[in-house]
Specification:
The complex is a heterodimer of chains A (about 325) and B (about 290). Helices cover about 25% and strands about 30% of the residues of chain A. With about 325 residues, chain A is an alpha+beta fold. The two termini of chain A are about 40 Å apart. Chain B is mostly helical and about 290 residues long. Chain B has a single domain, classed as MetI-like (MetI-like fold). In chain B, helix 1 packs antiparallel against helix 13, helix 3 packs across helix 10 and helix 12 runs antiparallel to helix 13. The chains are: A alpha+beta (about 325), B mainly alpha (about 290). At the A-B interface, strand 6 and helix 2 of A face helix 9 and helix 10 of B. Bound molecules: adenosine-5'-triphosphate and magnesium ion (MG). The site of adenosine-5'-triphosphate has 12 residues of chain A, from strand 2 and helix 1.
């Protein structure tokens, strides 16, 4: 079990309204990712769900039970922190067994659970080390181990991979996804990393200044963002935005087109000069100064034989233009 | 950069300071050892004669010596106990957010800035005095007999005075240690189901371990040589009830004018302090390793 429902949840620190009012339902077994710019309230929202912060208003239900005023322990959730938050003076074994010990489980039962968790997470060889003697990835696995032994109703992750290097991030990302597939437990995951959000999520929640901008599957958000914020936030490299005469031609205040949806053609509607070209082998990123529009980022597949200063003609792919109104909302 | 050359230069540069400090330490120590081997009484100047280890024998077999050792231990352990336990509790209290925090923190540190002599005098005359002291007034107000602290519980009173002086030091060090405790660790422990008391026992206290050892080490060094508080309040009495080793050395050499005995006592005190220091260093080393 692990259904979480937020109704009208508010949070303010003194004068500052960090979360004005928020409704959200997280289904049992779902992998939900919160994304948003720094300071938008992702961690605060997660801590509200965990019970580490008290809501200033509204209600939080976990599996149909009102948990708004329950202390963290009673909510049956487990959290993995960005700084790992391992207990430095305890061995890995004791760290993982700590929640079991607090729950009053017998030492023998706890030991067998720790062994099982260590097996899942490949921690067998490190059980008697201190956290200080582990690498970042190992520490993160210990933190996850401490979370899974409790068999929680849901896992909460607060940017768990942001302290790891790029290669390790990729493998840990896959490990967490696999863990989700084996355990089938609800997971709520906070990140500001595009790729993590797109690859791991069943459902992405885009937050902006404490408000939900859009909720949907990764590809939903990619294909049909409801406003310019989501359009600009989801997708890498960022969507191009075009204002002015060109937008008016399409009856919109603003046009959006993703770099990968612009083709280099013989004779297209947009003419321009290449300002910068980045050749990655698998992709080529071009910055094109288009007459009457401004700079557009264009993504070419594979090796493209174009360089700075070359003249090109561009055309947006049909049906891939996003139109936005004056208020930034998408027009259908 | 620690190249061979720069290290040699560094050694050369600090050598004057080291030599000066060495001379500063070695000369008095050597003279003390020399005096301790003499029959040297200030009442009979010019009559010094070689005494060998007689002074040590007399000093170590003097019943006052055992009393002094016991008192020194009681004083050091008593003050250490009060300041570490009290320091942890006060630091926990001061770490809570409350109105006027800044001012309260400054006030808590204040006793540390008062000179030992002054604070002992203040305690003696304004708090502990059986006629004019605040405690006497309080006792009278409650209809009780005023208690003469300094004559009936001299050592306990001195322990109280010294602990009052050192409590701020312990509190301050422990407070900074508390503030360096990772908040996410506490949150994690809360999620793991630890009660506030368990969080204190399993997370806070181990985190404070190092700072507590530092507090104990530094305080022990200073507490072994408490002197002013005793001189000002009880003069080591009644009898030898509040005489510690430092005060005994003073009493031998300057009250009985026996410089030889006093010096022997000084050397004994130095040896004992070094034994304590070695034990402490080992304990610290073990605790600081992690
Ligand atoms: N204890 C607090 N007191 C006052 N303001 C706070 C407190 N905690 C968070 N805030 C404010 O709430 C806002 C949201 O903070 P939060 O930590 O949730 O952001 P975030 O989305 O997790 O950002 P990041 O991606 O940088 O971690 C910030 O503006 C922050 O300054
Ligand atoms: Mg955060």
């Amino acid at each position: 079990m692990g259904q979480i429902t937020l109704r009208n949840v508010k949070k303010s620190f003194g004068e500052v309204d960090v979360i004005p009012s928020l409704d959200l339902t997280i289904e049992n077994g779902e992998f939900v990712v919160f994304v948003g710019p720094s300071g938008c309230g992702k961690s605060t929202l997660l801590r509200l769900i965990a019970g580490l912060e008290d809501a200033s208003g509204g209600s939080i239900e976990i599996d149909g039970v009102d948990a708004t005023s329950l202390p963290p322990t009673k909510r049956g959730l487990a959290m993995v922190f960005q700084s790992y938050a391992l207990y430095p003076h305890m061995s890995v074994r004791k760290n993982i067994a700590f929640p079991l010990k607090m729950a009053g489980m017998s030492a023998a039962d706890a030991a067998s659970k720790v062994e099982a968790a260590a097996k899942v997470l490949n921690l067998g060889d490190y059980l008697d080390r201190r956290p200080g003697q582990l690498s970042g990835g190992q520490r993160q696995r210990v933190a996850i181990g401490r979370a899974i032994v409790r068999e929680p109703a849901a896992f909460l992750f607060d940017e768990p991979l942001s302290n790891l290097d790029a290669a390790l991030r990729v493998s840990m990302r896959q490990e967490i996804s696999e863990l989700h597939q084996t355990l089938k437990t609800t997971m709520v995951y906070v990140t500001h990393d595009q790729v993590e959000a797109m690859t791991m999520a069943d459902k992405i929640v885009v937050l902006h200044a404490g408000r939900i901008e859009q909720v949907g599957s990764p590809l939903d958000l990619y294909r049909s963002p409801v406003n310019t914020f989501v359009a600009g936030f989801i997708g890498s490299p960022k969507m191009n935005f075009i204002e002015g005469a060109e937008a008016e031609k399409h009856n919109a205040a603003m046009l959006g087109v993703r770099p990968e949806h612009i083709d280099i053609v013989e004779d297209g509607p947009w003419q321009g000069t290449i300002g910068l070209s980045e050749h990655l082998g698998s992709d080529t990123f071009l910055k094109v100064l288009v007459d009457g529009i401004g700079t557009l980022n264009v993504r070419g597949t594979g090796e493209v034989g174009l360089h700075t200063g070359d003249k090109v003609s561009l055309a947006p792919q049909p049906g891939k233009l996003h139109r936005f109104g004056k208020d930034g909302k998408a027009l259908s | 950069m620690a190249t061979l050359n720069s290290r040699r230069a560094a050694r050369l540069m600090i050598s004057p300071a080291v030599l000066l400090l060495l001379a500063w330490m070695v000369v008095p120590l050597a003279m003390t050892i020399y005096f301790s081997m003499l029959r040297y009484n200030l009442l009979m100047p010019g009559m010094e004669s070689w005494a060998g280890f007689d002074n040590y024998r007399w000093f170590l077999t003097d019943p006052a010596f055992f009393a002094a050792i016991g008192n020194t231990m009681k004083l050091v352990l008593g003050v250490l106990f009060i300041t570490t336990v009290g320091g942890v509790l006060l630091a926990l209290l001061l770490d809570q957010p409350f109105w006027g925090q800044g001012i309260v923190r400054v006030l808590v540190i204040a006793p540390f800035f008062v000179m030992p002599t002054v604070s002992a005098l203040v305690w003696k005359n304004m708090f502990l005095n059986p006629v004019n002291g605040l405690f006497a007034h309080a006792a009278k107000a409650l209809g009780l007999q005023p208690y003469d602290f300094l004559s009936h519980a001299p050592l306990a009173s001195i322990i109280g005075i010294v602990a009052w002086q050192w409590l701020p030091f312990a509190t301050l060090i422990l407070l900074t240690a508390l503030q360096s405790l990772d908040r996410e660790q506490m949150d994690a422990a809360e999620m793991d189901g630890a009660s506030p008391l368990q969080r204190f026992g399993y997370i806070t206290l181990p985190h404070l371990g190092r700072s507590i050892t530092v507090v104990i080490l530094i305080q022990t060094i200073f507490l072994l040589s408490v002197f002013a508080e005793i001189l000002v309040t009880t003069n080591g009495g009644p009898g030898t009830a509040s005489t510690n080793l430092t005060y005994l050395v003073y009493a031998q050499s300057l009250l009985s004018f026996d410089v030889g005995m006093g010096s022997a006592g000084g050397v004994v005190a130095v040896i004992l302090a070094n034994i304590v220091a070695i034990f402490l260093m080992r304990m610290i080393g073990k605790n600081l390793e992690r």
